[in-house]
């Protein structure tokens, strides 16, 4: 009952975006995908969500996604895209209800309002989606995605949240709120895969991290194993220092806090 | 974070309002039918005839001809064509994710017209067995094929990676319309006298030539296309989020797009085949309905069919009485009423085209 990507290869014309990446995400965990711009993070998520043609295999809860119908996939996983444009003036609550349309069992009609309340936007239900700010729109889309897989476990199987840079246009408070929602979903038995830019948020919230660089998986493991000086410096091509606060009984002077 | 209990009012329910609108529009449609049967070039009126029937008197020969052979088929055709144009407008706007897409504007109507002209001029060259098989459906079916080809081409040209460029769509529509117009012009030169007469009557853009034969030739295709379009509500709603997201929420996007394109081509093609080009119904009707009750396609498509039928039947009444005993081509009436609304949409929402 995991989400397993095996030897994923994707090419855009002549350019190879992914050269054989494998990844196993387990339910109950937040799996983060990090890496520099152009390393293939979003492409990997695109393959996992069956949004683009790829070589290799993706299995969702034991089934090959290539053999699943769109509505079968929709019942087991919801996808938050990086940016969303909406064609017609739907209201916020109408947008969230679109997530319900997969008609999965056990969803009650008040799920959309509860999903909106979960992202702190219940009082925005009647607003026109196009009139929201970028951050608000992103949270409404998260509510839509949550409504689609409202119960993290259905029919004894985990459901999945696949998030492409879920906090890219949010302020710091809402970044924490959204990542907390993702982690709660995982703790309740669901699975989460998130493409992340922010390494600190990743260290805070991810259970497992895949570091991509140049279309390949450089490292995969817990944040402590993977977010090291060596791996990050190689992945991002610049010298990076990873710090951790010292044990509590040792005095520690932070030079940034000094005043003359 | 707001808990559920803190939310004082339930969200506005535009869907119920749109469903109530079904009944309101159906009632208005009934009234439009009565007006259409009541008014005309002769002073025969529906109410007078009903009064006569109520007193047990028989209708005169003229009254029967006016009612059953002139006004009723004209009403039926106005209803069919109006519903077809409005539904294909709404479906096409959903498919292209843009409120400016309209079969008449982006060249699908012109493509359908080319198909119809091809059938009128070159139809005689088809094998006799085939003509027997298709019979009086030849012109609508050819118009459907013309409209289908144009819609496919248009979608292909203007849509890349699941998003449609409005500018490309409109420009491609201009090129498509020009090409279809030029080919139609060549065919007109090739036509003989009898075909020229057929073409002239066909191209008037009016319901003046309405007959039961035309109603029967276009009715099935229009009915089928509208029926297919009415099932697309959920899919078109999903498509408003983009093709990728529509697939993520469980919609079979390729299948839905194919059905939408066929339905648009069928409804537009059959309407153009019997009435020539009648503009603006497809753009004005869905726009007004979105303002009234929101963009949810599950109700928008049926409401468009009803309001389209109402508007075209009433526009036809205006066309008949305004310079009686002569009559205006109905295309003039819809353009006079519709073009300002179209410009108003552009003025209000200028952002639509730049994006």
Labels describing this entry:
heterodimer; A: 260 residues; alpha/beta; Rossmann fold; 6-stranded mixed beta sheet; 4-stranded antiparallel beta sheet; 9 helices; 12 strands; 25% strand; globular; B: 355 residues; mainly alpha; ABC transporter involved in vitamin B12 uptake, BtuC; two-stranded antiparallel ribbon; 16 helices; disordered N terminus; transport (chain B); membrane (chain B); transmembrane helix (chain B); Iron ABC transporter permease (chain B)
N to C succession of SSEs of chain A: EEEHEEHEHHHEEEHEHEEHH
Assembly type of the chains comes to heterodimer
The fraction of residues in strands of chain A falls at 15-25%
Query: In angstroms, what is the radius of gyration of chain A?
Result: 19 Å
Q: What structural class results from the helix and strand content of chain B?
A: mainly alpha
Strand arrangement, major sheet of chain A: 6-9-10-3-11-12
Main beta-sheet strand count, sense and barrel state of chain B: 2 strands, antiparallel
The structure class of chain A reads alpha/beta
The greatest inter-chain interface is formed by: A-B, 41 and 34 residues
Strand element count of chain A = 12
CATH architecture of the domain at 3-84 and 156-238 in chain A: 3-Layer(aba) Sandwich
- The shape of chain B is globular
**SSE pattern of chain B:** HHHHHHEEHHHHHHHHHH
At the fourth level of CATH, the homologous superfamily of the domain at 3-84 and 156-238 in chain A is P-loop containing nucleotide triphosphate hydrolases
